[in-house]
Specification:
globular; mainly alpha; about 170 residues; 11 helices
Length: about 170
């Protein structure tokens, strides 16, 4: 059952990546509560990561989260992936998570995959550094940095679960 759920999740992510869009109204709503540098960081993200961030944000809000620091972490937690990490390195990364590091090692030999896979490997740290440079609060930066293994037992875990659900 777990295996089927994993594949279902990855197929959903694949399709979401291909069809990712951010409506002008969604961006306008963000402009009302983000600082210009935070909005610039959002705009610099790949459209699939922007869509994903908006979906994580919506999940957090639906769970009653209203703290700006946490919502901001949900929105920007993948900023470190950059705007040019394409679909196929992301597929290779996911397969490596499921089947082992040999998949990523093999994929890293493909042209252009090495740097993209490095960005994926270190995206939490990169995202946290970008958030800090954009002037995000220290709590936001910490939530982003610790997204895979939350140190905040409540909001860090809510962020991790919202990320996995989207």
């Amino acid at each position: 059952m777990r295996h089927a759920r994993w594949w279902g999740s990855k197929v959903r992510q694949f399709r979401s990546y291909l069809g990712a869009r951010v409506a002008p109204g969604e961006r306008a709503e963000l402009a009302a509560w983000l600082t210009p540098s935070e909005l610039g960081l959002f705009d610099a993200m790949h459209v699939a990561d922007r869509r994903h961030g908006l979906d994580v944000l919506a999940t957090l809000r639906s769970q009653g989260v209203a703290e700006r620091d946490v919502l901001l972490a949900g929105l920007l937690h993948d900023a470190g992936k950059g705007s040019r990490v394409g679909l196929w390195p992301r597929v290779a990364w996911s397969l490596g998570e499921a089947w082992g590091p040999w998949v990523v090692a093999l994929a890293s030999r493909l042209p252009g995959f090495g740097p993209a896979l490095d960005r994926l490997r270190h995206h939490a740290e990169l995202s946290a550094a970008l958030a800090a440079a954009a002037g995000c609060p220290a709590r936001t930066v910490a939530l982003i940095r610790d997204q895979a293994a939350p140190s905040d037992p409540l909001y860090g875990e809510l962020l991790r679960l919202a990320d996995e659900a989207n």
